[in-house]
């Protein structure tokens, strides 16, 4: 800003020289530029004097604020470049903000959180429906189209990523066990699932797409139907029938999802992490911890029963699968020189040696 003030003072000096020599058009030009560079300069009287007779503008007058001399003049930046940017920035700073304190407070609160549950304001034992309700509420409050507070876009992405992880059973189990959303290189990321979203590659992460899929079910904008007057030929009737068929195909997945939401669903028998109502801790013969609901588990799965043995083998397979997946990610990061620590590979090796 100090450089703009110096240039503004130089323009005032050149404008005064031009005004003294009778060139009012040149004087008005440099006074106006000085006002743009530094709106605080007291040059209202000079502008008024120069604008009383400014019709005789000299077309060959320079467009910079350098003092006239016999030698070559140094070239200054164009009027629409850095000076205009500085003036527009100053104007933007003085303009009233277009967001409320409540909107800014919500953005600050979300940016302070790192845990996905805390970002959505939920407990670890929340249901998928709780996750959807929290996302519906927060995404509308921090969407950049509605919230112009600084950092709203980053908060919107954080809310979307938290919903993307916690709304899917597989990714949520991995997050609860690992405590991170590091990318998994063992398989290609899945863009859509029936009850959530998966995939943690930043290149594939699109907060706006998640927002559209959640509120509009991934459907295109509403179709506008045009009705023709008069007789419609057989071709027009076929096109109309094809259009209705395409529309029916588009809404069919939505109808199926709505029907699935009303069907009874069974809760998982166990969880690899402690969360309500899975609070009773057990351990497989190979030392893998898992958690079950306290009520009726021992009755349904007695010790040494075939059902209990099959369940604990399933727990160990899932545990090994998660360790293998994260071990691949660690090896990939080490290959690119991003990290040389491989705790999950060490855990997997220890588990295999103890078999």
Short description:
The chain has 355 residues and is mostly helical.
Q: Key features?
A:
55% helix; three-stranded antiparallel sheet; single chain; mainly alpha
Description:
With about 350 residues, this protein is an all-alpha fold. The chain contains 14 helices and three strands. β2 and β3 form a beta hairpin. α2 packs antiparallel against α3 and α13 packs across α14.
Give the spatial strand order of the biggest sheet. 1-3-2
What is the number of E strands?
A: 3
Shape: elongated
How widely separated are the two ends? Answer: 70 Å
DSSP helix fraction: 40-55%
Mean pLDDT: 75
Major sheet details: 3 strands, antiparallel
Number of helices: 14
Q: Report the uncertain regions.
A: 54-64, 66-95, 184-203, 218-233
Order of helices and strands: HHHHHHHHHHHEEEHHH
SSE class: mainly alpha
- C-alpha Rg (nearest Å): 34 Å
Strand content: under 5%
Oligomeric form of this entry?
single chain
Give the arrangement of secondary structure elements.
Layout: H1 2-20, H2 24-37, H3 44-51, H4 82-94, H5 101-112, H6 116-120, H7 128-142, H8 152-166, H9 169-178, H10 207-216, H11 234-262, E1 270-271, E2 280-283, E3 289-292, H12 297-300, H13 306-335, H14 343-353
Antiparallel strand pairs: 1-3, 2-3
Helix pairs in contact: 1-2, 2-3, 5-8, 7-8, 8-10, 13-14
């Amino acid at each position: 800003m100090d450089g703009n003030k110096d240039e503004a003072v130089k323009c005032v000096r050149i404008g005064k020289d031009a005004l003294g020599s009778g060139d009012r058009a040149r004087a008005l030009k440099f006074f106006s530029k000085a006002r743009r560079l530094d709106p605080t300069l007291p040059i209202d009287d000079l502008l008024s004097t120069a604008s009383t007779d400014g019709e005789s503008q000299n077309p060959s007058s320079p467009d910079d604020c350098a003092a006239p001399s016999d030698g070559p003049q140094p070239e200054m930046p164009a009027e629409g470049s850095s000076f205009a940017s500085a003036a527009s920035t100053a104007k933007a700073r003085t303009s009233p903000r277009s967001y409320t304190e409540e909107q800014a407070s919500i953005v600050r609160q979300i940016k302070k959180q790192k845990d996905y549950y805390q970002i959505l304001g939920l407990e670890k034992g929340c249901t998928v429906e709780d996750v959807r309700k929290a996302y519906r509420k927060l995404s509308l409050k921090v969407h950049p189209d509605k919230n112009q507070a600084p950092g709203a876009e980053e908060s919107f992405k954080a809310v979307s990523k938290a919903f993307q992880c916690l709304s899917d059973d597989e990714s949520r189990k991995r997050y609860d066990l690992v405590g991170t959303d590091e990318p998994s290189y063992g398989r290609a990321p899945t863009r859509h699932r029936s009850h959530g979203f998966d995939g943690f590659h930043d290149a594939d992460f699109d907060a706006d797409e998640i927002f559209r899929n959640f509120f509009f079910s991934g459907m295109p904008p509403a179709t506008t139907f045009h009705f023709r007057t008069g007789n419609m030929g057989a071709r027009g009737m076929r096109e109309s029938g094809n259009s209705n068929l395409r529309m029916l195909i588009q809404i069919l997945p939505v109808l199926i999802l709505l029907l699935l939401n009303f069907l009874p669903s069974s809760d998982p028998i166990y969880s690899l992490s402690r969360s309500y109502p899975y609070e009773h801790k057990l351990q497989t013969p190979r030392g893998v911890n898992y958690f079950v609901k306290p009520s009726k588990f021992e009755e349904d799965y007695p010790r040494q029963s075939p059902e209990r043995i099959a369940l604990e083998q399933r727990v160990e397979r899932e545990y090994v699968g998660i360790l293998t997946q994260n071990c691949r990610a660690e090896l990939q990061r080490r290959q690119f020189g991003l990290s040389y620590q491989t705790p999950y590979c060490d855990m997997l090796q220890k588990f295999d040696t103890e078999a």
